[in-house]
């Protein structure tokens, strides 16, 4: 019988513990270290499918939770009255329109990743563009004192990206969780404590508005 190379210890553990994906252990480690999720947290999860991050956020934030997930594909296995799903392409949704639909967030988290080509400079550039898009959304929707979490690929541009968003947060850190696969070059950037807003908006990511925004129950 052919073995599944993706079926590692974390995958089996997630299956045993009824999590929707092994990636939950990355968020769990980050949350344990930086205390991102509290009781009653209002959370936005960009690229939420298959739903393990939202599942964890709901389990940690209690009955007063308000978790919104955005993706092109709906996590049908996740059913909770405290969870709302928005079907949209994060790269092209209208951020200002989204801000009219949901309240400011305590945490915005993104596990966005590009389709890889195997050409590292291309993959890194695409990854940073997605991270920048997530940061641009966070600049609009994250409340003062809130936190930001996003995935990015290691490379020369990562330090520059970290520097660019450092003015938005009290502290910015990088972490490679233990559940990250050995061959992966992904790391997670954590922005703790959103600074009070100035007079203008900081545009970090590339915003391309298509108007595609659909709420699903």
Please give the share of residues in helix. Answer: 25-40%
Report the structural category: alpha/beta
Rg for CA atoms:
17 Å
Superfamily (CATH H level) name: Vaccinia Virus protein VP39
Apparent shape? globular
Q: How many strands, what sense, and barrel or not for the largest sheet? A: 8 strands, mixed
CATH fold field value: Rossmann fold
How many structural domains can be distinguished in the coordinates? 1
Termini distance?
41 Å
Which CATH architecture would you pick? 3-Layer(aba) Sandwich
Proportion in β-strands: 15-25%
Overall mean pLDDT stands at 90
Total DSSP E strands: 8
What is the string of SSEs from the N terminus onward? HHEHEEHEHEHEEE
Individual helix count: 6
> What's the level 1 CATH class?
Alpha Beta
The low-confidence parts are 205-217
**Which strands sit side by side, in order, in the main sheet?**
6-7-5-4-1-2-3-8
Please give a structural write-up.
The structure is a single chain. This protein is α/β, with parallel strands linked by helices and 217 residues long. It has one domain: Rossmann fold. Helices cover 31% and strands 24% of the residues. It is built from 6 helices and 8 strands, in the order ααβαββαβαβαβββ. It has helices at residues 9-16, 24-34, 52-61, 95-101, 120-141, 156-165, and strands spanning 42-46, 66-71, 83-87, 105-110, 142-153, 169-175, 186-194, 214-216. The protein has an 8-stranded mixed sheet, sandwiched between helices. α5 links the parallel β4 and β5 (142-153). The longest helix is centred in the middle third of the chain and has 22 residues, at 120-141. It is globular, with a radius of gyration of 17 Å.
């Amino acid at each position: 019988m052919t073995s599944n190379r993706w079926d590692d210890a974390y995958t089996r553990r997630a299956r045993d513990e009824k999590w929707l994906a092994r990636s939950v252990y990355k968020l769990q480690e980050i949350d344990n270290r930086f205390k991102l999720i509290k009781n009653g947290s209002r959370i936005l999860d960009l690229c939420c499918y298959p739903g393990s991050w939202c599942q964890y956020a709901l389990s940690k934030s209690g009955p007063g939770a308000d978790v919104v997930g955005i993706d092109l594909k709906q996590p049908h296995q996740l059913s909770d009255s405290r969870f709302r799903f928005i079907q949209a392409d994060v790269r092209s949704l209208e951020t200002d329109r989204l801000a009219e639909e949901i309240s400011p967030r305590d945490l915005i988290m993104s596990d966005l990743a590009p389709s890889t080509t195997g050409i590292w400079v291309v993959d890194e550039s695409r990854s940073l563009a997605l991270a920048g898009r997530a940061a641009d959304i966070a600049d609009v929707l994250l409340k003062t004192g809130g936190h930001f979490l996003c995935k990015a690929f290691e490379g020369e541009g990562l330090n520059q990206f970290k520097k660019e968003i450092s003015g938005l947060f009290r502290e910015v850190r990088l972490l490679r969780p233990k559940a990250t696969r050995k061959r992966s070059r992904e790391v997670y950037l954590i922005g703790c404590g959103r600074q009070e807003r100035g007079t203008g908006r900081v545009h970090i990511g590339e915003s391309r508005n298509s108007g595609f925004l659909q709420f699903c129950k």
